Amino acid sequence: MAEQTKTRHEQVYQSLRGDILAGRLQPGQKLPFADLSTRYGFSVGVIREALSRLVEQGLVENAPQQGYCVTPISEVDLRNLTQARCEIETLTLRHAISEGDIDWQSQVLASHHRLANTPMMEADDPERFSEEWAEAHRVFHETLLEGCDNPRLTNVATQLRASAELYRRWTAPLPEGKTRDVAAEHQNIVNAVMDRNSELAVKLLNDHISLTTTILLESRSHELSDSNSVPA
Q: Is 232 a member of any domain?
């Protein structure tokens, strides 16, 4: 019985998480217990535990007297985050290209090979990125910056990328996100890094980061919270 209970809790958690990441539950959408119980066929207690786990991951918010909702998109936060990422990550990449050795370049190639050969979308849910791809994507971008000798820069860059994960995942089901050639963007960045062409690599990374923001702002403008909302 305990195993069955654990399975039920995990099932509703995975279902809720998948619907949020795929955009089937929209940013800012209210999550009433009754509606979720009907949608997923589980008790309020099971739903509550799943929501608590999702709050810890930053996918759901719980406001006093307002209940649970999907973490909203904040246009102000998204623009500020994108500006910070473009400035910090490109600066760090410039250092990496200047300071990184052949071992670093080899690690970049290896992480890119893994990323390029990992299916991007979930086989049973083509509206969202696969967890394997998301992990390979994280490792690739972190490896790009590891040639930098300044750990302060790399740590800040990594933290900023982590803050952007929810925004990034919400581009997956959007039409613009589906037609975007992310693989080519990654390959072009790698080529520039291998050539140690810092100007081109920095431009390509800047464009890569900015495009995600552009897609979200253009496709989900009606869902954007105002500047007074809690940032995503």
A: no
User: What type of residue sits at position 51?
Assistant: L
Q: Are residues 50 and 105 both part of a single domain? A: no
- 180 in the same domain as 121: yes
Give the orientation angle of helix 33-40 with respect to helix 2-21, to 10 degrees: 110
CA distance 104 to 223: 41
- The pTM score is 0.78
Reading the block at residue 93, the tokens are 């990449």
Mind listing the pLDDT tens digit for each residue in 176-227? Answer: 878 899 999 999 999 999 999 999 999 999 999 999 999 988 886 655 554 3
Q: What is the pLDDT of residues 73-117, one digit of tens each?
A: 788 989 999 999 999 999 999 999 999 999 999 999 999 999 999
Q: Are the beta carbons of 215 and 174 closer than 8 angstroms? A: yes
To which H or E segment does residue 62 belong?
strand 60-63
Other Cβ atoms within 10 Å of 223 Cβ, number: 17
